[in-house]
Amino acid sequence: MKRLIPALLAATVAVALSACGGNTEQTANTTAAASAPATASNTASAQQIQLQGKLGTTLVPANVARIAALDYTTIDTLMALGATDKIIGLPLASNVPSSLDSFKNGKYIDFGAVNNINLETLASNQPELIISADRLEKQNDSFKQIAPTYQYHIDTANYWPSFKEQTLNIAKVVGKTAEAEQKLQTLETQVSEIAAKTQGKTALIVLVNNDKLMAFGAGSRFGLIHEKMGFTPVDPSIKVGTHGQSISYEFITEKNPDYLFVLDRAASVTGKTGGAEAAMNNDIIKQSKAFKDGKIVYLNTNNWYLMNGGLNAMQEMIVEVQNVVK
């Protein structure tokens, strides 16, 4: 099957060249453009949108109509902007978040899993833009052979500015910049209100992964709770990493945070819920301040783990925290 991929990619390129009138005409057009006045160059550039991101500069056709959205975060943002009509397909082989159930109606192409895209299917459906994600970095070079590729990536060390930049880049592609700016301003106001109420309050973020507990602190994928929402890290030395720092139940009670934010990885990956609540239901945790004060908060893992940085998801993430700091 792998032998088919180069052929499919070649076929895709051939179709694109044919649409331009073949190699001879393309060469002639390029030569003509080089000798044309600057106004012609400006017209050509106006037909493309330039995005800066982790993959460098990506040139996207203006008025793009066929987006292969390979990341649930991107789809969540496109939903918030009212631009789902641009999406031709997504990874449907993975556990799709319930908020995206409408994409399982048979109208969208299944491109595989969120960490492993079927290149043959992707190439044969000729997207005009591919939006990749961190989980798919290993396939980016292959994506680029098919269509312009942009990687949605949030720099967790600079979370909020990075989130805004990614949102505005997606909005720029679909002509929804004004709508995105308005929504971002609303979110900015909401997180500022949260931060005003959390001064001096400590927090610990824990991801339950079956029988393992992983702690996340400032600068992590969930560091928004500290950097933007104002909670003080109960332990500033927690190592930053994709998978967090392994901890014990005793660690939680020793650090004794005011708020304990808990996520259940299994709930987002397998759809099986209740694991986080079961993990926290023990005598050690019951000795903690967070348990006694009713401040153990079970976060929506689909939003925080699968769509962290999506525009709709961010709104719901903020509301979750708002509801516990009233």
Automatic annotation (TrEMBL):
PROSITE patterns from the UniProt entry: FE_B12_PBP, PROKAR_LIPOPROTEIN
Subcellular location: Cell envelope
InterPro entries listed in its UniProt record: ABC_transptr_periplasmic_BD (IPR002491), Bact_iron-sidero_bind (IPR051313), FatB (IPR033870)
Coiled coil region boundaries: 170-197
Signal peptide: 1-18
Fe/B12 periplasmic-binding domain span: 66-326
Domain of life, per lineage: Bacteria
Keyword terms of this UniProt record: Coiled coil, Ion transport, Iron, Iron transport, Signal, Transport
Predominant location category: other
Similarity comment: family membership: Belongs to the bacterial solute-binding protein 8 family.
Name listed for the protein in its UniProt record: ABC transporter substrate-binding protein
Organism: Vitreoscilla stercoraria
